[in-house]
Specification:
By secondary structure, this protein is α/β, with parallel strands linked by helices. The chain contains 15 helices and 11 strands.
C-alpha cells in the first residue's frame, strides 16, 4: 500500500501562484531598473563562480521563496550586459518587456508549436506571415518555422537545399546519405559570411574543403564575378554546386550582398539561394536601405532573428521557406501516434524540421511585434541606422579616429589613431586595450573584432532606447580611454 504523502510541493506552488508571481514581477521590475542604471559589465567573482558550480542537490525540496531569494542574490546581480542600451558589443539586445511577460504565459500553457490542435499552432501562421511582410519575403504558399536562432535556421535551410540537389540528380539523400560516391556538393558564401555557414557545411558532411569563401569588393560585398568563376571551375572539376549563402546585414560589418545579382546567378545555375538576414533581415524597413535589399524576395530561404532587432526575448530565430514542400521532403517522418486529424488547417512544424518537441516561441514573438506594429518596427530600424550614420560622421570628422569599413545598417567599425602614428601592430594592441578600458569603466560594454586583419572597435546600435546622447558618449569615452592609454 502506498504511503500517504503530504500535499505535493507543486500543488502548493500552483495554489499559491499569485503570491509567487507578484514576487517574480517585483524582482523583474527591479532588475530592469538595475540593468538600465547600473554598471554594465559585471564579471562574476571567483568565489561566486565556485559556489554556482558546486551546489549540492538538496535532500529535501527548497521552498519557492528560498528559490526566488537565491536567484535574486546569487544569479541576477551578474547578468550579461546586452540588456543595456549602452552595450554595443554583440547583436543581442534588451528583451521587450511585453515579450518577457507573455513568455510567462507561454511557459504556463506549456504547449510547443510542433503540431496538434491548439491555439498557438494557428497563431504561428500569422507570426510567420508578419515576418514575411516585414522583410518583403513572398508570403503566398510560404511557411515559417521558429528556431533557437540563426544558426539552427540556416542548418535547416541548407539541409533542405542538399536534399533538393540530390533529388534533382536522381537520388535520395535520406536513403543513401553521403555514402554512395556521388559528386561532392559545394556551398558558396562571401568571406564576410557568418561563421554558422561554415559550421553548417561541416555538420552536413560537405566540409570546409567544399565551402567557397569568395572575395568581397571594396564595400565588403560578395564579388558576383568571383561567384560565377568559382561555380564554373567547380563544374569543370566534376563537383556539384549546391547553394549560395548571401548576407543581408553581416554580423561583422553589416554588409548587404548584391542580392539581386546573386539571385540572377542562382537562377541561371539552378542553385538554391539562402539569405542570412539573422541580424539585418529587417533592414529594408529603413527607406535609406530599401533598394539594397532588392532581390531578397527571390531567395529560397531567409533567416531572420526576432531576438535581435525586434527585441524578442531569447531565444527566437526564424526560417522563412518559399518552397515548404522541399523542407517537408527533407524532414517529414510521421509516427502513427502523430498523424494529423482530419480537418487540420495548419501545417505541423515538426514535419519541416529536425526537432519534435520544442518551446513555443510564437507568443512572445507575436506580442513583441504586435506591441510595435509595422510603424514601430520601421521607426526602430530607421533610428538605429541613423544613429550609426551619426557615429560614422563623428569618426570621419575626428582627427584621432578612422573608419575601418563603410557604415552599413547599425554597425560601425572604427579605431583610435593618436597623433604621432604607429604601425598596425601598435594600433591593434592599443585599440584592444581601449575596448577593455571602456568596458572596465562600467559605462559601456565594448568588444573588438577584426576588419581585414585590423583590430576594430565595433559598435552595433540596436537597443530600443538608443539615442544621440549614447553616440556622443561612446566616442568621447573611446577618446578619453585612448588618450589615457597612449599618452
Amino acid at each position: 500500500m502506498l504511503k500517504q504523502h503530504a500535499v505535493h510541493p507543486f500543488v502548493r506552488d500552483r495554489d499559491a501562484y499569485g503570491d509567487t508571481g507578484h514576487k517574480v514581477v517585483n524582482m523583474i521590475e527591479a532588475y530592469f531598473a538595475d540593468v538600465r542604471d547600473g554598471t554594465l559589465d559585471r564579471p562574476v567573482p571567483q568565489a561566486q563562480r565556485d559556489k554556482l558550480m558546486n551546489l549540492p542537490i538538496p535532500e529535501e525540496g527548497l521552498e519557492a521563496e528560498d528559490i526566488l531569494s537565491f536567484l535574486q542574490t546569487d544569479i541576477m546581480p551578474w547578468p550579461l550586459a546586452t540588456a543595456s542600451p549602452r552595450s554595443y558589443a554583440w547583436i543581442n539586445t534588451g528583451p521587450s518587456p511585453i515579450g518577457v511577460a507573455v513568455d510567462h504565459i507561454s511557459n504556463a500553457m506549456n504547449t510547443g508549436v510542433d503540431g496538434y490542435d491548439h491555439s498557438s499552432v494557428f497563431l504561428n501562421i500569422s507570426v510567420g506571415r508578419w515576418l514575411m511582410e516585414l522583410t518583403g519575403f513572398p508570403s503566398e504558399e510560404s511557411f515559417a518555422v521558429l528556431f533557437s536562432g540563426g544558426s539552427a535556421a540556416s542548418l535547416n535551410a541548407l539541409t533542405a537545399a542538399r536534399h533538393h540537389a540530390a533529388k534533382q540528380d536522381g537520388w535520395n539523400m535520406r536513403e543513401e546519405g553521403l555514402q554512395n560516391g556521388h559528386p561532392p556538393f559545394v556551398i558558396y558564401a562571401s568571406a564576410e559570411a557568418h561563421s554558422s555557414i561554415q559550421k553548417c557545411a561541416e555538420q552536413l558532411g560537405i566540409g570546409r574543403r567544399f565551402m567557397r569563401k569568395l572575395p568581397s569588393d571594396d564595400d565588403f560585398r560578395m564579388d558576383v564575378a568571383a561567384l560565377e568563376t568559382a561555380i564554373r571551375a567547380d563544374r569543370e572539376q566534376g563537383l556539384r554546386p549546391m547553394a549560395v549563402a548571401a548576407a543581408a546585414g553581416s554580423t561583422n560589418v553589416g554588409v548587404i550582398d548584391p542580392l539581386d545579382a546573386i539571385a540572377d546567378v542562382c537562377v541561371r545555375e539552378d542553385l538554391w539561394l539562402h539569405v542570412d538576414g539573422a541580424y539585418g533581415g529587417f533592414g529594408g524597413l529603413d527607406p535609406a536601405y530599401t533598394d539594397a535589399y532588392r532581390g531578397m524576395e527571390r531567395a529560397d530561404t531567409l533567416t531572420v532573428d526576432p531576438h535581435k532587432w525586434p527585441q524578442v526575448p531569447l531565444d527566437c530565430g526564424a526560417l522563412l521557406m518559399r518552397h515548404p514542400e522541399r523542407h517537408y521532403d527533407a524532414y517529414s517522418l510521421t509516427p502513427d501516434y502523430l498523424v494529423a486529424p482530419d480537418g487540420n488547417t495548419a501545417r505541423w512544424t515538426y514535419e519541416y524540421m529536425f526537432q519534435l518537441t520544442y518551446a513555443n516561441r510564437s507568443l512572445k514573438t507575436w506580442a513583441t511585434i504586435a506591441r510595435l506594429g509595422r510603424q514601430g518596427m520601421a521607426e526602430l530600424v530607421t533610428r538605429c541606422n541613423a544613429l550609426a550614420s551619426i557615429l560614422g560622421d563623428l569618426v570621419e570628422k575626428a582627427p584621432d579616429f578612422e573608419l575601418l569599413a563603410p557604415v552599413s545598417l547599425s554597425v560601425v567599425n572604427f579605431r583610435y589613431v593618436p597623433k604621432g602614428g604607429m604601425d598596425n601592430a601598435g594600433f591593434d594592441a592599443l585599440n584592444a586595450a581601449i575596448a577593455n578600458a571602456m568596458t572596465r569603466t562600467g559605462e559601456v560594454h565594448m568588444e573588438t573584432t577584426k576588419v581585414r586583419g585590423r583590430v576594430s572597435l565595433r559598435a552595433c546600435i540596436l537597443h530600443y532606447e538608443n539615442s544621440h546622447d549614447d553616440v556622443v558618449h561612446l566616442i568621447e569615452l573611446a577618446r578619453r580611454c585612448g588618450e589615457e592609454l597612449s599618452g
